[in-house]
Amino acid sequence: MALSAQDPRDRDQPGPNSSPPVAPRRQSVHEAHGVQRIDDYAWLRDASDPETLAYLRAERAFYDEQTSRLAGLRAELAAEMESRTPAHSPGVPWRRSGRMWASRTRPGDEYEHLVLLSSGGPDVVALDPNEIARAEGAEHLDLGLVEPSPDGKRLAYSVDVSGDEAYELRFRDLTTGADLPDRVQGTYYGGAWSADSGAFHYTLADDQNRPDRVVRHVLGTPVEQDVVLVAEPDRRFELEVAASRDGRWVVVTSGSRDTREVTLLDAADPQAAPRVVAARRPGVEYAVEALPGGWFGTGDDRLLIVTNDDAVEFRLAEAPVPKAGETGDPSTWVTVPGAVARTGGERLVDVAVLAGHVLLSVRRDAEPFLRVMSRASAPGQVSPREIHPHLPCGQIRVHRLEDPRARDLVVVEENLVTAPVWSRVDLDSGARTVVHRTPVPGLDPTRYVTERVWGTGADGVRVPVTIARRRGALQRATNGALLYGYGAYEACSWPEFSVATLSLLDRDVCYAVAHVRGGGELGRRWWLEGRLRSKARTFDDFVTARAALVESGWAVPGEIVTRGLSAGGLLQGAVWSRAPKLWRGVVAEVPFVDVVTTMSDDTIPLTVTEWDEWGNPADRDDFASMLSWSPYDNVPPSPRPPLLVTGALHDPRVLVHEPAKWVARIRATDDPQAPSDVLFRVELAEGAHAGPTGRYARLRYEAEILAWVLDRLGLAARPA
User: Fold this and answer.
1) Is residue 701 domain-resident?
2) What's the pLDDT tens digit per position in 460-497?
3) For strand 395-398 and strand 385-387, is the pairing parallel, antiparallel, or unpaired?
4) How many domains does the chain have?
5) What are the counts of helices (DSSP H) followed by strands (DSSP E) for the chain?
6) Best CA proximity match to 554, nearest among 519, 589, 511
7) 570 occurs within a structural domain
8) What's the CATH code of the domain at 639?
9) Which residues of the chain are under the pLDDT cut of 70?
10) How far is residue 358's CA from residue 382's CA, in Å, rounded to a whole number?
11) Is 185 part of any domain?
């Protein structure tokens, strides 16, 4: 079905005398490489300007008015989702610092609470974010880190109540349940305790929200006395800090999009000089894992290194630990036999060292799996065992593997229609025993079908699409489809279970996930072929995924809505601009859409660190490439498909002016005879980049988005 301005689903039903907001036009000119770009809405960059806030409020009011008629459907969807959400979850325990922990939920709680398990008495609630939110009157709460100390007596945790990702670091005495007076403002993600539990290492960010310092705080001392241990002056790089699995090292990683350097700090000796595993080399990435006692556990301590040095899809190498104050030599790295990516579609991702085994995380042909190597035999002498998902089109991941002495592990499996299942795996035999299934009231997975289809693009590349539908449908193409995509940073869109998906499937709407280039599902090459000047391949792949839905019979033309967030919101903006006639509607959540302007302004958070992903407009060819697909610079003529855009005032990743400018420009280019159906849901209160963090608040948000999707598909008045 071709997009038609006469189809009532292509327009919202306006209320009395309703009209969309009109942002004032104040012309400014951006000039680069002889190209002038007129921007009438650059003034929206100042989110503190009263006129900017007034415009954002007007857009939110217009959105609320235009979607008020969907209130009943929202309530219906939210009730469905809540009825399928278990009120109570006991959590699956894990071991850390010699003690057992679990994350649990209680009826009515928005957030999980952390419990310290006791073998001889009652379990103790170590941290309850619900209590913190109530005490601070916070509608939004996010924990940046939660780290028990090595002696199990303290807990480091950090809190954000606005959504700006600037966390307050706090410390709790687990013997009394009271917080210590020590508090550190403006910290970032990641942290590591000292071996004696007396000090904590954390990161601070610069004015562009780039974590550029690793700092040590000694408990009981003034924060002003905290010492900067590592500083990163190169604005292309960010710092991360974490403890090694055995607690021997504080691991500081300095990384850009394609280059990494690791520094080891002695967790037991704060006076010891740092050790650099290998100096950074452009394009070379590596990550380290401590290998106590070497491969057999009887010799000197070693390191295992996952690296792309001389291996595009990465290899595992064994290396000596550099001496204090020295930098290691990569020529001493020895590839572990049998631990190199084996095919073009395989990617070695990560490594974990346990008491008797080495565990590799691997991807191959759009499937994640695990590879187990025994430390009882020399590498290469025994064939590694592979642990794959049992579920069709499923994913498998390790659950909280924080005990280096473990001789087994717990894995989590799920797919689009099966809620997470936890199983204990015997690493010697490979046998799995289910220890917990997520209880989903009323869920019968056999009512649904999930499978993977492949589309072939114009360049001959095959693009995988994971699909779910209701089994009882009379035919595959029934009430349309919702196609989700991301496609950036080598991130993988593995199939995840959601009760929201069930509400779509029960209305005979197909749900699909496109695994496009720019992501990492088919290896490192999948990312390399969808970044920088090759970015347009991501958008082409998404159109190929849409064609695969149609060709396989899962959907019909004109009945497909698409959705994505952040870089996935950029994807939606690009396909909305480049192929407007293909979509019944487009949901672009916190979309990164003013690409050329943002990447030209190095005062905006993340810009410099993002040049290696999108390109630097100072380069003429990068500029031309980005300009060819940047949604803000390529608004298509009317008629255009319906568009739902979201943004958040406190979002530090995609600043709210990006979606605001885009919506304003779309409205200004409207054909009066065919006005755009575009809505801007801007979050003016506290809220995070990815939306609400509370579990019930998240369901209400999902109900809001899906009500709009169902309305676009003409299903607003039809119950499940």
Assistant:
1) yes
2) 999 999 999 998 765 565 789 999 999 999 999 999 99
3) unpaired
4) 1
5) 12, 37
6) 511
7) yes
8) 3.40.50.1820
9) 1-17, 343-344, 473-477, 717-720
10) 13
11) no
